[in-house]
Design brief:
alpha/beta; 6 strands
Length: 206
């Protein structure tokens, strides 16, 4: 699969051949869905908590006599029935992470890349570098390329000026190649890869 390579200024810079084993698979939605659920579950903090009866600071004295009041029998003001009492069956801190085999995660990434390639949502750039960390100038370059909602994946490190200029642009995410993931690929309309990122991905899945 041959792709044209362009520069940030919109000029042609040759072509690159994408590996069919990475970018040419028939996308499987079940694998992609499993990987996204795994990612989002690991992202959850799990710090939600409420106060149960044991956590409420109230007197333990019996509210009133057991009999003779004509009302219900109560023994504690900490009961969930009362305003200010403990909450029943509330959330408690826990880990929401689930397990997913490493091979399944790697396969899901390849299928996500293939899904973008099939939809024509992949753009290959020669390099991502900016002379100055100016968001306005970079936005103008993105408009020429038609980038409004995109994930940009660079090499092992993102050039400093480019990273600073891009971080203020809405709906544009920038990641080094080692940070590429299924969720971020699919949440953006376009996937922009540098030649270094393509080479790194092909070396990763050899």
């Amino acid at each position: 699969m041959d792709m044209k390579v362009t520069t940030l200024d919109g000029k042609e810079a040759g072509s690159v051949t994408l590996n069919k084993e990475i970018f040419g698979l028939e996308p499987r939605t079940d694998l992609i869905q499993r990987c996204i659920v795994w990612q989002l579950a690991r992202r959850r903090a799990g710090t939600h908590a409420v106060k149960n009866r044991a956590d409420i600071h109230r007197t333990g004295k019996k509210l009133h006599a057991q009999k003779g009041t004509g009302g219900a029998r109560h023994g504690s003001a900490r009961a969930n029935l009362f305003r200010g009492g403990g909450r029943s069956f509330g959330p408690h801190p826990r880990d929401h992470a689930i397990d997913l085999p490493k091979k399944v995660r790697a396969l899901a990434l390849r299928h996500a890349l293939s899904a973008k390639a099939k939809d024509g949502g992949i753009i290959v750039l020669d390099d991502i570098a900016a002379k100055d960390a100016k968001t306005k100038a970079l936005t103008a370059q993105f408009e020429k390329l038609g980038l409004a909602n995109a994930l940009i994946v660079g090499g092992a490190e993102i050039e400093e000026n480019f990273g600073r200029a891009a971080r203020n642009i809405p709906n544009i995410d920038v990641l080094p190649v080692q940070g590429i993931n299924v969720y971020d690929i699919l949440r953006r309309q376009q996937l922009v890869l540098t030649k270094a990122a393509v080479e790194a991905l092909e070396a990763r899945f050899k």
